[in-house]
Amino acid sequence: MNDIHGDEAPENEQDGKHNKPVTAPRTLGEVGLNHFAPYLMNRIMGRYNESLREKLTRSGLSVAKMRALAVLSVVDGLMINELSVYSVIEQSTLSRTLDAMEKEGLIHRKASEQDNRVRHIFMTEDGRSAFAEMWPHMRNEYEAMFKGISQSEHDAFAMTLRKVLNNIKKHDI
């Protein structure tokens, strides 16, 4: 599927049973770290990235390079500001990362036909190969992450995450 967004979360979906809004605790101590969603999401991503770091290093990649390649494998030809949002990499860091990736032959930049100042970023064959080499490891870690979780639980979790993202997004993408 060549859709970066996936399924959009319905704005006001209610299951009839559990439609009471979540209220934030007055203090972190009231809820504890293991019930504070931002903390849990950071821990999950930290562990996921750490589980891939050794394989990335052996392949000459970093987490930032892997994120950029992963996004470009789904939607090639993005502008840097779009790639920054999708890859969750600050634009200044991404710019340096893309410079290195271009020198390594993983990506190339092409001027927009409408505006010469705008550059679109494309994966090269070497970039596709590097991502293809990493994807099985990423997939294995993804499967390990959801071990013991049913498809319906996974789908509900993903839908909830899309709703949360929609609530806090600062970009149209």
Write a structural description:
This protein has a single domain (about 35-170), classed as Winged helix-like DNA-binding domain superfamily/Winged helix DNA-binding domain (Arc Repressor Mutant, subunit A, Orthogonal Bundle). The protein has seven helices and three strands. The protein has helices spanning about 30, 35-60, 65-75, 80-85, 90-105, 125-145, 150-170, and strands at about 80, 105-110, 120-125. It has a three-stranded antiparallel β-sheet with strand order 1-3-2. The longest helix has 22 residues, at about 35-60. The protein is globular, with a radius of gyration of 19 Å. It starts with about 25 loop residues before the first helix and ends in a 5-residue tail after the last helix.
Question: Secondary structure elements and their pairing?
Answer:
Elements: H1 28-31, H2 37-58, H3 63-74, E1 78-79, H4 80-87, H5 91-103, E2 107-111, E3 119-123, H6 125-145, H7 151-168
Helix pairs in contact: 2-6, 3-4, 3-6
